[in-house]
């Protein structure tokens, strides 16, 4: 027994290699770094002071002001209108693309994916000014209809992500059974494919909605006067004197995004 | 009769693919729409960059003129002589520098957090992944604003800097603020792909290396890092490319000085009203992006992994 110990290499302290030193500290610091600025916004939205960075006392006056601000109401209405239309069309386009891309041949597939992925890869400002130039050259007036078109385009990849993921997970059995029972393509699509994809379609739609409602750069360039969206309005507020009203409206927007995302998450969970 | 029908059905399936798989033509409305709304604006950007600027107001005049590209590098002095114009080279260099620093810092921060999350119990892991993913879906404008309030001279960080350090030292409205903003906004884009790789890592390899006498650092460098390399490459692409074209961070945190490419593009489509010049910078940004995507793909292919951006 003792001889085995003697010939064994010098045994080091037993360590758990899953825990590298300092990783826990760095991780919690990073998480704090990610969330402290948002926490600051939420806390300072209850600041009674006129100056956003200097805390005075607890107050909900800026929420009252925000909710009665007709400019914010108008901007919110514009944002919602654009987001609803962009969500519906981008989801529709994403479903069609997902269904079609599965069977597409090499070249067509590459080109299609390049177009769908372009808004994710190319800087948003490049597409925004390009779209501005295009709208002016084509005589499309700046404003809500133009924004709806542009938002639809960059929402498609986000709507497509969950739909495509779900489509690749579907098993062949229900489709083969339906085909064996004499269902035609249209029937299979309507009775099998779409119902199976439904949770992913809703999840994709919610993601598209979250992306559209938060968009700043594209809207900034093609909103035109009179159809300012909420992020563009907030940007204007930040540019001028900053009161805690910015924090209040930001907190409301955070809350709203949170609700949309949790809905999307719950839907995604349920399908498993 | 029945056999023949089955045979016929089989050949039909073979041509049309699996049951339930619809015609590829279904994708055509999407492709046509995107061609019109993405393809045409990109084509216009390239064409406009080669035209003359409008004498008054915004827009272009339809005469061929590569002056926009010349203006990127050449300055025309008042006495008619020309010289090297370093203003825009500096903007490009700044954009590369800020995005590069951002990429490096996010890698250094993301490897520990990705590894740490990957080694937690599953229930905790899901919560942590959700916590890292959540900022991705929050408005960049609001996130950047929140950070600005933190590093503002009157904010917590600014206050600490004043108390412990030089009272004249400001973070806000400096290039450092821009870089902090870029790191803040793009950090989740680095953590998530590295985590995706780290989660698949089999820790028995690390244990085996350790048993064979490797030191912790050696295990980390020789076993762990190569295993998560595909995630790092994907992360580099997801951070460096959008950072290079970012607008809000240098605008809101860097003091609104036109110190990154996107800010100069915005300026030329706004007050400066020089569309061809703005388009030339856009073309430059597109080319850099494509080159970078290509490099990342090559790097990925060399290590035998396909780097998927979408």
Descriptive report:
- The complex is a heterodimer of chains A (272) and B (310).
- Chain A is mainly α and 272 residues long.
- Chain A has one domain: MetI-like fold, CATH 1.10.3720.
- In chain A, 75% of the residues lie in helices and 0% in strands.
- Chain A is built from 12 helices and no strands.
- The longest helix of chain A is centred in the N-terminal third of the chain and has 32 residues.
- The N terminus of chain A is likely disordered.
- With 310 residues, chain B is mainly alpha-helical.
- Chain B has a domain of 215 residues: MetI-like (MetI-like fold, Orthogonal Bundle).
- Chain B is built from 13 helices and 4 strands.
- Chain B has a two-stranded antiparallel sheet with strand order 1-2.
- In chain B, a hairpin with a 6-residue loop joins strand 1 and strand 2.
- Chain B is globular.
- Chains A and B meet through helix 2, helix 4, helix 5, helix 6 and helix 7 of A and helix 2, helix 4, helix 5, helix 6 and helix 8 of B.
């Amino acid at each position: 027994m003792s001889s085995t110990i003697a010939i064994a290499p010098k045994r080091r302290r037993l360590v758990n290699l899953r825990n590298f030193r300092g990783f826990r500290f760095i991780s919690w610091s990073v998480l704090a770094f990610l969330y402290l600025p948002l926490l600051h916004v939420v806390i300072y939205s209850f600041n009674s002071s006129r100056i956003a960075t200097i805390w005075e006392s607890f107050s909900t006056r800026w929420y009252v002001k925000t909710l009665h601000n007709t400019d914010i109401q108008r901007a919110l209405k514009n944002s919602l209108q654009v987001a609803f239309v962009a969500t519906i069309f981008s989801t529709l386009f994403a479903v069609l693309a997902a269904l079609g891309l599965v069977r597409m041949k090499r070249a067509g597939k590459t080109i299609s994916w390049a177009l769908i992925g372009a808004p994710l890869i190319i800087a948003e400002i490049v597409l925004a000014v390009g779209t501005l130039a295009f709208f002016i050259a084509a005589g499309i007036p700046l404003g809500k209809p133009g924004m709806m078109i542009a938002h639809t385009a960059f929402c498609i990849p986000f709507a497509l992500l969950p739909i495509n993921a779900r489509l690749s997970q579907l098993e062949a059995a229900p489709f083969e059974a339906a085909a064996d029972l004499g269902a035609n393509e249209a029937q299979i699509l309507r009775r099998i494919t779409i119902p199976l994809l439904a949770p992913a379609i809703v999840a994709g739609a919610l993601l598209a909605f979250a992306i559209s409602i938060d968009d700043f750069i594209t809207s900034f360039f093609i909103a035109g006067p009179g159809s300012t969206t909420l992020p563009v309005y907030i940007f204007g507020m930040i540019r001028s004197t900053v009161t805690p009203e910015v924090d209040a409206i930001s907190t409301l927007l955070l809350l709203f995004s949170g609700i949309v995302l949790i809905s999307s998450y719950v839907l995604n969970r349920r399908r498993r | 009769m029945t056999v023949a029908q089955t045979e016929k059905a089989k050949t039909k399936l073979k041509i049309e693919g699996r049951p339930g798989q619809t015609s590829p033509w279904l994708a055509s409305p999407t492709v046509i729409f995107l061609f019109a709304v993405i393809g045409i604006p990109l084509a216009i950007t390239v064409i406009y960059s080669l035209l003359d600027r409008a004498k008054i107001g915004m827009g272009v005049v339809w005469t061929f003129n590569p002056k926009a590209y010349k203006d990127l590098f050449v300055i025309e002095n008042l006495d008619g002589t020309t010289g090297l114009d370093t203003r825009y080279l500096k903007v490009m260099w700044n954009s590369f520098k800020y995005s590069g620093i951002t990429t490096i810092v996010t890698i250094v921060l993301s490897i520990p957090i990705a590894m740490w999350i990957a080694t937690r119990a599953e229930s905790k892991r899901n919560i942590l992944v959700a916590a890292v993913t959540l900022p991705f879906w929050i408005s960049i404008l609001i996130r950047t604003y929140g950070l600005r309030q933190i590093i503002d001279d009157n904010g917590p960080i600014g206050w600490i800097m004043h108390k412990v350090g030089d009272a004249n030292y400001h973070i806000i409205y400096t290039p450092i603020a821009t870089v902090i903003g870029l790191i803040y906004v793009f950090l989740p884009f680095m953590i998530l792909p590295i985590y995706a790789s780290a989660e698949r890592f089999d820790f028995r390899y690390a244990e085996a290396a350790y048993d064979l006498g490797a030191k912790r650092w050696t295990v980390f460098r020789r076993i762990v890092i190569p295993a998560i390399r595909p995630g790092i490459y994907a992360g580099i692409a997801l951070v460096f490319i959008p950072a290079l074209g970012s607008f809000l961070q240098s605008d809101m945190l860097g003091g609104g000085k036109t110190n990154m490419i996107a800010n100069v593009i915005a300026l030329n489509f706004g007050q400066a009203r020089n569309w061809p010049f703005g388009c030339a910078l856009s073309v430059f940004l597109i080319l850099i992006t494509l080159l970078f995507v290509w490099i990342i793909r090559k790097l990925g292919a060399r290590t035998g992994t396909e780097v998927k951006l979408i």
